[in-house]
Amino acid sequence: MNDATLPRAVPAHVPICQFPESAGELVVGGTPLSRLAARVGHTPFYAYDRGLLAQRVEELRATLPQAIKLHYAMKANPMPALVGCMVALVDGIDVASAGELKVALDAGADPLEISFAGPGKRPSELRQAVAAGVLVNVESFREVQLLGGIAAELGLPARVAVRVNPDFELKGSGMKMGGGAKQFGVDVEQVPALLAAIVEAGLGFEGFHLFAGSQNLRAEAICEAQSKSYELALRLAAGAPAPVRFLNLGGGFGIPYFPGEQPLDVAPIGEHLGALVERAGRELPEASLVVELGRYLVGEAGIYVTRIVDRKVSRGQVFLVTDGGLNHHLSASGNFGQVIRKNYPVTIGNRCGPGPREVASVVGPLCTPLDLLADRMELPVAEVGDLVVVFQSGAYGASASPQAFLGHPPCTEVLV
Ligand SMILES: *Cc1c(COP(=O)(O)O)cnc(C)c1O
Questions:
Q1: Does ligand 1 come within 6 angstroms of the Cβ of 73?
Q2: Is the CB of 117 inside a 6 Å radius of any atom of ligand 1?
Q3: Are 23 and 138 found together in one domain?
Q4: What integer pLDDT is reported at residue 325 of this predicted model?
Q5: How far apart are CA 335 and CA 354, in angstroms?
Q6: Of 240, 266, 293, at which residue does a domain stop?
């Protein structure tokens, strides 16, 4: 490789070390990539490494206080086998639709430890939630009224927590989901009236849910949001009809996707939560503190694998054309909430060793310039038949992509 001829890219991606390499190939779940591709039978596919899922939860538990309940927000990755794996690792599952609720229940999650959030819950979904006995994070006055009727009709208690739209946001988050005017939860100013409506409707109040934002890499910002969430819940608890049993402080733990980003340091969050747990022991003695995480638990354990079907040079620029792209992995193409498109970490999974490198773009098979998996990245020199790997792909991948767009085959997901 002649370093001098390569354009010196802007800041680099954080090194991806979670997948070992052997004989020039990436190893996933103990299997070299080309053998795994043969086992799957076709490309493209997603592969999730169950050993890495377990390792992530184990490391996090070692850092967070024991009393913290760790929930998995399954919208990050709802693959049933993976959810089954997560059910065995975490303390509860957060679902956001009746479809996700079914997957969580099928996977063996304890209904007492499932919570159901999301704006626009349909009456049929609320009915399913009450019948299942899960905790509903109510997000409107309408939901409270509907739940009152459903509980009476079914002769079952309706367990509810109030999802609060706080008067602050998680600073520096990829996606803000609280603060200001939002479709999520009920504005903190309206919570006293909502609590009164909950009593009126005869629902079983169990706590509060606050979720200030997502994809944050700054421990300090997360700690600040957790403190503010705790203070707010404590204030609201004074007017609650029953003791707080669940206080869901949200999540927002991010993973590094783009050049220049550094992994989140969870140690200060663990220390900070330790102090909150101690306070809660005095101030909210019946409450479990919950942290709900999606991508932090599963994102780094997954890769997307797509095969090169063509190699072209256009006016001096190399294009590696693959058999999958935006249709399976919208977020890596830069079209899932990113303001400025940046590259995910990408490599050629069967050419890991030393060898010639070049600057190339990886594009999918769709007839749109949006179908771009890597824009002018330095990669091992690759040929038709090689396997492109997109790292950090365990969350918001297959289920968050428009698989029908352009009529290519859907991708497979495997847990290895
Ligand atoms: C999306 C979502 C999550 C998970 O977000 P991640 O960024 O994947 O951790 C957690 N809680 C709620 C309420 C959500 O909507």
A1: yes
A2: yes
A3: no
A4: 97
A5: 32
A6: 293
| pTM for the structure as a whole | 0.95
Cβ atoms 163, 206 nearer than 8 A: no
- Tell me if 122 sits within 8 A of 142, measured CB to CB: no
Tracing tokens 């038709």 back to the chain, one arrives at 384
From 256, 274, 293, the end of a domain falls on: 293
Distance in angstroms (rounded) separating the CA atoms of residues 272 and 281: 15
70 part of a folded domain? no
Q: Domain residues for 288?
A: 78-293
Dihedral (CA of 304, 305, 309, 311) sign: positive
Give the pLDDT score at 171: 82
What is the Cα 291 distance to its own chain's centre?
13
How many angstroms separate the alpha carbon of residue 361 from the centre of ligand 1? 31
Q: How many CA atoms lie within 13 A of 135 on its CB side?
A: 23
297, pLDDT greater than 90: yes
Q: For residue 396, give the ligand 1 atom closest to its CA.
A: 8
| Distance in Å, CA 294 to ligand 1 centroid | 6
Residues 6+ apart with CB under 8 A from 275: none
The Cα-based distances of 395 to 55, 202, 302 in angstroms read 16, 38, 8
CA distance 382 to 176: 39
CATH number, domain with residue 131: 3.20.20.10
Give me ligand 1 centre to Cα 365, in Å: 30
Question: Does ligand 1 lie within 6 Å of residue 71's CB atom?
Answer: no
**Mean pLDDT, rounded, of the chain:** 95
What is the per-residue pLDDT across 89-119, written as a single tens digit (0 to 9) for each? 999 999 999 999 999 999 999 999 999 999 9
Question: What separation in Å is there between the alpha carbon of 165 and the centre of ligand 1?
Answer: 14
Q: Is the pLDDT of residue 345 over 80?
A: yes
